[in-house]
Amino acid sequence: MTKKEYYDLLVKSATDGTFPSVKGNVCQYRKGSHKCAVGLLIPKDKYHKGLEGVDVFHDLVKAVVEVPEDLNINDLTRIQECHDSLAFYPNWNANEFIILLNKLPCFQDIN
Asked: Would you give the distance in Å from CA 97 to the centre of its chain?
C-alpha cells in the first residue's frame, strides 16, 4: 500500500464508521467491524487477540503490521495517536481527525 492509499483509507475510515475502535478505556486494533488506524494495516489472517493492549512499537505488532511505502513505525505511532486522542469522546469527530492527520509531517506531501 502506498502512503497516499493509506491516507485515503484513513479518511474513509474516519467518515464511514470504521473508527473509533475502543473497548472500555483501551483503544483496540480491532473490535467487531471497527478498526483503529494501525489496525487497518494488520491483515485479517495475521490478527490475533494477543495484539490488543500492546502499543505499535511492540514486537507482536511490528511482526504483523504492513507498513505503507514511505512510512515507518514512528509515523504509524503518530497516526495512531491521532485516532486515540479522539477515540474516547462521546461522538467521534471525523473532521478533527482529518485535521490532525493533515498536520502530521509524514503527510505534508499529500495535502
From this structure: 11
